[in-house]
């Protein structure tokens, strides 16, 4: 009686399940880090758009003092205006899902220290 069995044994199936579990345990933290990077990229993008809007207003009035800075950006980004004068301004962006991270930007006399003018940055903007 020569029977050939088709299918997998229980041990083979358990090994496959364990391997899939190990791969999932490695992949899940990497996905969380990717989401935080996406939120930070959204903050940087909104701040760069803010620079464009500010420069458009400056070209009209030759001053930043009359410009009303928006307080919200795309997809949950909150913009907090900083200093604002006729010759410069600054702002900070945060995101509710990127706790502990924020990005700063500034133009003219409002430029934060250690940042290039019109470029987002900051200690937690990574």
UniProtKB/TrEMBL annotation:
<dbReference type="InterPro" id="IPR012902">
    <property type="entry name" value="N_methyl_site"/>
</dbReference>
<keyword id="KW-1133">Transmembrane helix</keyword>
<dbReference type="GO" id="GO:0016020">
    <property type="term" value="C:membrane"/>
</dbReference>
<dbReference type="Pfam" id="PF07963">
    <property type="entry name" value="N_methyl"/>
</dbReference>
<keyword id="KW-0488">Methylation</keyword>
<dbReference type="InterPro" id="IPR045584">
    <property type="entry name" value="Pilin-like"/>
</dbReference>
<feature type="transmembrane region" description="Helical">
    <location>
        <begin position="7"/>
        <end position="28"/>
    </location>
</feature>
<keyword id="KW-0812">Transmembrane</keyword>
<protein>
    <submittedName>
        <fullName>Prepilin-type N-terminal cleavage/methylation domain-containing protein</fullName>
    </submittedName>
</protein>
<keyword id="KW-0472">Membrane</keyword>
């Amino acid at each position: 009686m020569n029977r050939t069995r088709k299918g997998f044994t229980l041990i083979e199936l358990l090994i496959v399940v364990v391997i899939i579990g190990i791969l999932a345990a490695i992949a899940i933290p990497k996905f969380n880090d990717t989401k935080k990077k996406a939120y930070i990229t959204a903050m940087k993008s909104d701040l760069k758009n803010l620079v464009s809007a500010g420069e458009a207003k400056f070209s009209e009035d030759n001053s930043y003092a009359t410009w009303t800075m928006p307080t919200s950006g795309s997809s949950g980004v909150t913009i907090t205006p900083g200093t604002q004068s006729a010759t410069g301004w600054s702002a900070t962006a945060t995101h509710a899902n990127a706790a502990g991270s924020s990005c700063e930007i500034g133009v003219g006399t409002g430029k934060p220290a250690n940042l290039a003018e019109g470029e987002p940055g900051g200690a937690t903007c990574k």
